[in-house]
Amino acid sequence: MTPVLKTQDLKVHHNTARGQLKAVDGISLSVAPGETLGLVGESGCGKSTLARCIVGINTPTSGTLEVAGVSPEKSRLARARAVQMVFQDPSGALNPRLTVERIIGEPLQIHQRAGREARKAQVLDLARKVGLSDYHLERLPHELSGGQRQRVSIARALALNPALLVCDEAVSALDVSVQAQVLNLLLGLQRDLGLTYLFISHDLSVVRYISHRIAVMYLGRIVEIGPAEEVWHRKMHPYTRALVAAIPDESARRTDAVLLDGDVPSPVNPPSGCTFRTRCPFAQARCSTEVPELRDQGAGLSVACHFAETLYTV
Ligand SMILES: Nc1ncnc2c1ncn2[C@@H]1O[C@H](COP(=O)(O)OP(=O)(O)OP(=O)(O)O)[C@@H](O)[C@H]1O
Predict the structure, then answer these.
(1) Which atom of ligand 1 has the smallest separation from the CA of 45?
(2) In which element (H, E) is residue 217 found?
(3) What does the alpha-carbon distance between residue 219 and residue 72 come to, in Å, rounded to a whole number?
(4) Among 155, 209, 254, 311, which residue carries the largest CB count within 10 Å?
(5) pTM given for the model
(6) 225 near 50, Cβ under 8 Å?
């Protein structure tokens, strides 16, 4: 089956005053139809840059990117329809002067020739799919709650039946109970409409809840990728262990939890060899000279750590 998203050695490097900044540094991944791939990592790991590349806001420095089997550079219009994004802050993404009806209907107005009445019916149908009603359609964004605004963003994103929905920290600004409602909405929509998601968050417990597979990202690279429960329970990469340890009251936390000190190092002149070694309690001499490649660990899990097997039994 053709993947909905496929990237091969994708890189986004920025020229900055301090040198070349490798925001995304060789990402290869694919997402199957109807699947959710969760992308997790701390702030500054390059998650948003990768997302912006996929939706066409950023241009890759090198590598290939295909959406539904087509290279999106070939057709800007096709990409505008094929990939939609839901952002963290719906207030910033929604025009404050337009009613919800206009906001949800805008993509239809731009891309479809449907008449006013047909569009109105489509908008109401989209609103109902995300749990909103006629009442909400007449409101302005500031009259809605944060959760309702995020529902509007999702309805708008779904208007053109995208092949892929990229959710970038889509629930991070919401209260925990509202987060759960929006996550459940996304799960329900996927079940009913067969949607495909790339779901990005710094919060591994949120990513685990919604994802079939999880990719853990550190300084522009994937350090662990596999089925959600394999990543969560085996957490073979020390960085994955650290992300689990950072979750408050997490019962899955191992007794030998890795605790993260400080911030992610600068992507300008990142550490040699394994870029995580400067924060890794298990780092050895080899880690500073040799870049670890992703290696198959069985059950669909791949881990980029020289000592993954030995550490797993620690
Ligand atoms: N246009 C740009 N020019 C230079 N550096 C950039 C640019 N865009 C992003 N960066 C840098 O690239 C790195 C990755 O940023 P990115 O926003 O993708 O990370 P992130 O994991 O999504 O974090 P956050 O959740 O905070 O957005 C950061 O060091 C950031 O400062």
Answers:
(1) 21
(2) strand 213-218
(3) 25
(4) 155
(5) 0.94
(6) no
Calculate how far, in angstroms, residue 196's C-alpha sits from the geometric centre of ligand 1: 25
Protein residue closest via CA to atom 28 of ligand 1: 44
Q: Which two tokens mark 304?
A: 């980029």
Mutate to test the pocket of ligand 1, among 14, 216, 243, 266 (most ligand atoms within 8 A of CB): 14
User: Which residue's C-alpha comes closest to atom 17 of ligand 1?
Assistant: 48
Q: Is 22 in the pocket of ligand 1 (CB under 6 A)?
A: no
71 located within any domain: no
Q: Does the structure show a pLDDT above 60 at 35?
A: yes
Q: Pairing state of beta strands 302-303 and 62-67?
A: unpaired
Residue 108 is assigned to a structural domain of this protein = no
Q: What's the number of CA atoms in the CB half-sphere (13 Å) around residue 83?
A: 28
Q: Among 52-61, 89-98, 158-167, 212-221, whose mean pLDDT is lowest?
A: 89-98
Domain assignment present for 256: yes
pLDDT over 90 percentage in the chain: 81
Residue that is written with structure tokens 């329809």 in the block: 81
Residue 82 has what DSSP assignment? H
Q: Which residues of 247-285 are buried (b: 16+ CB within 10 A; e: fewer)?
A: eeeeeeeeeeebebeeebbebeebbebbbbbbbbebbee
Q: Is residue 277 included in any domain, yes or no?
A: yes
Report how many domains make up the chain: 1
**pLDDT digits over 120-155, tens only?**
999 999 999 999 999 999 999 999 999 999 999 999
Tokens 């912006």 belong to 52
Pocket test for ligand 1, best of 47, 61, 201 (most atoms within 8 A of CB): 47
